[in-house]
Write a structure and sequence with these properties.
It is a single chain. The protein is an alpha+beta fold. The protein has four helices and ten strands; from the N terminus they run βββββββαβββααα. The protein has two domains: about 130 residues, Jelly Rolls, CATH 2.60.120; about 90 residues, no CATH class. The chain has a four-stranded antiparallel β-sheet, with helices on one face. Strands 2-9-4-7 form a four-stranded antiparallel β-sheet, with no helix packed on it. The chain has a two-stranded antiparallel sheet with strand order 5-6.
Length: about 220
């Protein structure tokens, strides 16, 4: 999901989380100025993030200013050049654990929004837990091992079930993609090897039958 945060919007941009998980909020591009653009006083990229609470403002002497945000991303220092400001903050990100139906508000922190100019584009994506980013998951390892041991009763179904479950979890970014090859290998072994064995046995039986028939014909 990508959102464009308009610097003149004092209410911010609100999103509702559809699925529990870890979410990364990162800046893709953009910058804004809190002064009239013609004054050329510089550009900012700072974005305040509020989770499950409305924007809260406090008068700091120069007007109401957002406070008690849960996180910020971007660069807080004023940069004279737009491209430099954008470059400094591009890729700036945070990761937060969120539940289904949580809401998040992203807003430009300022006390007077009417003279602001510019936008920030934010990317919001569900990410894997850090714990599963590295190696293959236990499901993938189990799928491969039971696939190799397909000839043991119960191993083939286990390989198929574990492999499919892990592939689904990988597609949802809930499991490490490092185990995808193991899942596929385990499923293939569990499916293909019994078929090959059945073909070999069937071919052997037919060969024996044909040979017996041939020998019977010779004897007769």
């Amino acid at each position: 999901m990508e959102l464009t945060i308009d610097s003149v919007n004092s209410a911010g941009t609100k999103i509702i989380i559809q699925e529990k998980g870890r979410y990364r909020f990162s800046i893709i591009e953009g910058a804004y100025t809190i002064y009239e653009k013609e004054l050329n006083k510089g550009w900012l990229t700072l974005i305040s993030i509020f989770i499950n609470k409305p924007l809260e403002f406090e008068d700091k002497g120069y007007g109401p200013y957002p406070i008690n945000e849960d996180a910020t991303i971007g660069f807080a220092e004023m940069i004279l050049n737009y491209d430099e400001a954008e470059s400094l903050s591009k890729g700036s990100s945070i990761v937060r654990n969120l539940n289904q139906d949580d809401y998040v508000i992203l807003a430009v922190p300022d006390s007077y929004y009417e003279d602001n100019s510019g936008t920030i584009k934010i990317k919001i994506e569900k990410v894997m837990n850090d714990i599963v980013k590295g190696g293959a998951s236990p499901l993938a390892i189990t799928s491969l091992i039971t696939g190799i041991l397909w000839f043991i009763p119960g191993c083939s179904p286990a390989a198929i079930i574990c492999g499919i479950i892990d592939l689904v979890k990988i597609s949802k970014k809930e499991s490490s993609p490092a185990g995808k090859g193991m899942d596929i290998a385990g499923i293939v072994l569990a499916v293909v090897m019994p078929i090959i064995l059945w073909l070999i046995i069937s071919a052997s039986v037919w060969a024996l039958i044909w040979r017996a028939s041939a020998l019977g014909g010779i004897v007769n």
